[in-house]
Amino acid sequence: MEPFGARWHDLTGEPVETLEVRWDNGGWTAEGRSDSLSCHYALRLSPTWQLRQLLLFRDLDEPDLWLATDGHGRWGEMNGAHRTDLDGCSDIAIVGSPFSLTMPVRRLPLHVGDSAEVHTAEIDTEMLVVLPVHERYTRLTEVRWRKETVTSAAAIEWEVDEHGLALELDGVFRRVG
Prior knowledge:
- By secondary structure, the protein is mainly β.
- The chain has one domain.
- The protein contains 1 helix and 14 strands.
């Protein structure tokens, strides 16, 4: 399988994120660099786009955050600590990362008009805080999606390409490559 990727800029033309996704050892590896968040990350995903592992780097050679899941909703850190607060989460969302929108889009078998609720581990890279959030994804058209945070009125909409990568988000960022 051929690797694919994307680059996003904000509406002023400043770089937001660069991404490469490749097939590697029986699963997907996604590596991204976020200029706007001053970090880079590596995600290991199953063939069906279920998260297996996240490594997040900010300013050190070693990961600042290393999370893994057993695929059944149990989460842990690299030191072996069980993260019971994240149990039940199936996805991660790096706040401010366009790629975070891709995993549920690729994984959820939704028809146009259908919705699914997803428990997500939301990561604030500045504070290095991970919190569980409850989200609802709705497929509005073949290429347009909406994500709502169930506990608030927050909602965003975006369109995707053939790989499920976001093209533009409500005037926040735009795909440039």
